[in-house]
Please model this.
Amino acid sequence: MVCRAEARCGTRALVTETSSTPAGIAADRPPPGIRPPARLGPPTTGEVEADRLVLELRVLGVPVIDWFVDAADVAAYIQQAGYATRYADYYPGNRMEKALEHYVAARLLSFSPGQRYLDVASEGSAAPAIYEELFSVESWRQDLAYAPGVHGRTVGSDAARMPLPDEFVDRIGLHCSFEHFEGDADLRFVSEAERVLRPGGAVCIVPLYFAVPYSVMTDPAVAVAQRVLFEKDALVCCVSGYGNRHGRFYDARHLVDRVLSRGKQLSPTLYRLRGTERVDSSCYARLALVLRKPWRSRARWR
Model:
């Protein structure tokens, strides 16, 4: 089983294998300073786990759509956006995956000219500029790393507590960022997204990371040094070199409890991405989640 997870501030996808546990060390033995249950190696995630998640969510009544990626359309988007020319320094070792994430979000969000788009946990993302140029939207950026407050179209804040008015944006995108929301930040973000979205608005999370069992991946050196706290019911998966504090991988129950059931009006649709390998062998996104706010109040999905 191979797990690929992108370092939040890195320049490449980290690829590790569950078979990489050093000889003589038990796979379920946590490194010093990491609370149990924990193990060495990445979460168990792959095609089998994705299909299991889809099946369990369908049983619960969550809409799931098999979404086939058009490799030719992706290639045309990449060419038009200029990833290899105008954004040559943007994730050079992982550019195809990043471009795929941006493409998927753009297609699922179905932009219309003049809409206001918010790129959450944006940091140095190329997506806001690309979306503005290709789809004629008004792009805004949000990140905890930015200077606090609103500066032009840049928002420095916690993503779950943004200094923005109610019903301020039409579309929200998160590209390889939602998994880094620690503690209850994922729960709180859903409520915040519902607040700042206009009626008819939508938020897209891609990739949506998943595993069996529910897991959080961390770099043990970072976690110990920064005293990262993990949920008691999550398996902590320790991957040296990951470089990040926290990467959350949902199972069906935790996705429902922590995300899908949190919005009072938001309606979820899970997209099972098919054919991403035809875009490039480095692409690893398998799931995308869209939460839509209705034009007027209506009953929730459950």
